[in-house]
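Please decode residue identities from the backbone states below.
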């Protein structure tokens, strides 16, 4: 711990605004418990930052702390890995990092760190590459390894998984991959831990997962489903209808894709959540279309039993207007986020909304 304090004294004030308030001469005199708390706080990703993630990386401070010392790196890594955001920009690098960690473990390297054991929430955005048949090559041996061998245990080891609907093939292939490795399926528990599944950019396209025995088993184990609306259509229509008074303040049109969800496959589903931007009229519709606004979000949660009938509801309405294929607003739990994110016709920060903790808002993970 003394070496950690010395390293922090000389390095960290340059890397974290949190540390700049502590004089160099007094840092090593702080109690060890306080040093650890300060370090843990400084390493937490800034998911609720006003800047877009592609402008300012929310992990930037934690990554700099990793350069201070081995002990500081381990503390920062725990904070960084709790919630991981992946997309086309960093997926390949993440898979390569997993391969390096496997080699570190075999070598008992001091930089070895068990990613899977620490990742609790994983976001996979739109991924244009192909991992299902890709090979990762070692830097120390000539033996290539399947990318699915590396990413599948991580993807399916998290209690809360969010994935773009366009990337569902990666999830389907990962489930099939671990399913085939699980020989004794009758007596062994499912080879995944995922209970909350968040789908972003859902569309009316077909679901291929229920066509496989592995996919059916995976969907049957999900207890909570969160649907993030399609960027170009559902969100814009909600804002437009609410701003123009077409729907009331307690009315919500369910995304059209909800009728395409294979609800019968979700055998253990307990609740469903939908997320909408919070629109409080008056609002300039043209300004929203051109430049957009910073809006808070509403998380609406209701029992999954409402979606299990032959006719899927198409609307949540106030109780005075309730009717066939409608969910009563009084049966829905609504939680409003404490921070705004930017919404416009083509730019909506659903990744940021999810990263800041949809499950925490509903009292879950």
């Amino acid at each position: 711990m003394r070496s950690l304090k010395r390293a922090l004294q000389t390095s960290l004030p340059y890397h974290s605004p949190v540390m700049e308030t502590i004089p160099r001469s007094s840092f090593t005199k702080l109690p060890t418990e306080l040093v650890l708390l300060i370090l843990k706080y400084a390493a937490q990703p800034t998911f609720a930052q006003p800047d877009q993630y592609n402008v300012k990386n929310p992990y930037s401070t934690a990554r700099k702390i990793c350069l201070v010392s081995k002990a500081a790196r381990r503390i920062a890594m725990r904070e960084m890995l709790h919630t991981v955001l992946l997309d086309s920009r960093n997926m390949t690098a993440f898979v390569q990092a997993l391969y390096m960690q496997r080699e570190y473990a075999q070598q008992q390297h001091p930089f070895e760190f068990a990613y899977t054991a620490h990742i609790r929430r994983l976001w996979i955005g739109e991924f244009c590459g192909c991992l299902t048949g890709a090979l990762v090559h070692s830097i120390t041996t000539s033996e290539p390894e399947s990318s699915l061998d590396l990413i599948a245990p991580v993807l399916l080891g998290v209690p809360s998984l969010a994935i773009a609907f366009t990337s569902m093939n990666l999830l389907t292939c990962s489930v099939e991959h671990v399913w085939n490795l699980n020989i004794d399926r009758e007596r062994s528990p499912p080879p995944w831990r995922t209970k909350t599944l968040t789908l972003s950019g859902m569309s009316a396209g077909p679901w291929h997962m229920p066509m496989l025995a592995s996919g059916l088993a995976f969907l049957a184990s999900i207890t909570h489903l969160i649907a993030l609306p399609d960027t170009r259509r559902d969100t814009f229509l909600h804002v437009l209808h609410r701003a123009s008074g077409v729907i009331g303040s307690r009315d919500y049109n369910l995304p059209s894709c909800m009728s395409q969800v294979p609800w019968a496959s979700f055998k253990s589903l307990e609740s469903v959540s939908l997320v909408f931007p919070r629109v409080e009229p008056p609002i300039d519709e043209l300004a929203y279309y051109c430049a957009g606004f910073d809006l808070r979000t509403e998380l609406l949660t209701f029992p999954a039993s409402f979606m299990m009938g032959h006719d899927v509801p198409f609307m949540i309405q106030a109780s005075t207007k309730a009717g066939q294929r409608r969910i009563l607003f009084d049966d829905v739990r609504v939680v409003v986020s404490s921070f705004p994110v930017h919404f416009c016709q083509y730019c909506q920060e659903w990744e940021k909304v999810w990263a800041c903790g949809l499950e925490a808002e509903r009292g879950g993970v």
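Observation: Confidence is low (pLDDT under 50) at residues 13-23, 134-143, 360-365.
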